[in-house]
Amino acid sequence: TMKKAQRVCPKLTTFQKATHREKFMSLTTDVNDTRDAYLQEVQSLAKKHGQSERWTHCQLFLGGSALHLSKGDCWKLTDFISAHKETLQHDYSKLTAAQKNGYAVKLIKMHAEKQRVVRDNPKGVHRNTTMSFAAMDQEWTVLCSRLGIEGFYIAVRGGIEDLSGPKL
C-alpha cells in the first residue's frame, strides 16, 4: 500500500505571525465593540418603547414589521379603510367596469393562490373507514337475520355516476 502524501505547509515567519495575530485581534475587537453597541441600542429601544429586551432584539434581528418597515407606516386594514373610506369610494367610482372586473379577478386569483391545500390524515381516514364498515357490517347482519335474506355491499370512492353496471 502506498502512503498518503502529506501536505507540507511552509512555516510562517515571525513577521507573518505577528500580522495574522494583529488582524485577528483587530477583528475580534471590532466584533466585540459592535456587539456591545448593538446591545446598548437594544436596551435603549426597549426602555424607550416599553418593550422587553428580548422582543426588541428579535424585532431587530429578524427585521420585524413593528420597527423595520420598508414602505409607509404600519396599518391595520380595517383602520386604514375607516380612515380613508371617502377617498377609496371616490377613487373606486372613477374606475371603468373593465378595471373593476380586472381588480376582482386579481383578488380572486390571489385568494386562490393563498389557500392552503388540506390533506387527509391517512391514519384518521383508515380509522374512520374501519369504524364505518364495522357499523355497517353489524347493521347488515341484523337486517339479513331479521328478513332472512343474504346479500353483500360494495363501497365505491366517488359518486354513483362513477359506478357502471356489469357487462355481460
Residue share in β-strands: under 5%
The chain-level mean pLDDT equals 79
User: What letter string, H or E per element, gives the SSE order?
Assistant: HHHHHH
Radius of gyration: 36 Å
Q: Fraction of residues in helices?
A: 55-70%
Label the overall shape: flat
Class of secondary structure makeup: mainly alpha
Question: Number of helical runs?
Answer: 6
Largest sheet descriptor: none
What's the count of strands? 0
Low-confidence stretches: 64-69
Measure the end-to-end span. 76 Å
Account of the 3D structure:
- The chain has 168 residues and is mostly helical.
- It is built from six helices and no strands.
- The chain has helices at 14-49, 53-62, 77-83, 85-94, 97-114, 122-147.
- The chain is flat.
- Mean pLDDT is 79; it is low at 64-69.
